[in-house]
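Sorry, I am new here, but would you mind making up a protein's amino acid sequence and the tokens describing how it folds?
***
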Amino acid sequence: MPARVTGTPDNVTERHLDAVVNLRRQHEQRKGLLGRAADFLVARLGTLACVGLHLAALAVWLFVNNGRVGALSPFDPYPYPLLSTVTSVEAILLALFVLITQNRQARLAERRADMDLHVSLLAEHEATRLIALAEKIAERVGVDTRSIEGGDEIDALKEVLQPHEVMQELEQVEEQL
């Protein structure tokens, strides 16, 4: 496959992929320091290696503070108040970082859903126009569209979709559930 010059896509798929990549880059650039830090921590702390590290640290802590390591004297004897404090603070911070990341991902998912809706509405509009065009062509060449199976549905397919009416209908259906 020949190399392509960046910025000169040679087909629609490449243009779309370039647009998606650019949107993701822009999203990454708009993240603040806290957002990048939260993503970094959540990505690193949400691994099996981190679980293993925590278990190992807990085991060392318990061995030292139960007096099982002769060279080290216990610094946090049973019932381990310092360990409880450290783990509680860590849990609070971890939960906050996860929430920050989830909130940002939810906003991104909402933007993607809006974009999907927009593209779907454009496709619906284009399909409606193509159906109307095809019907006019059929009329001009003398084809009776009513004789085609499902031909009576053409009028319904030519109607322009009104998104707010669809939303109202969805809301009515949901209220009945």
User: Anything to note?
Assistant: The chain is about 75% helix and 0% strand. The longest helix spans residues 81-141.
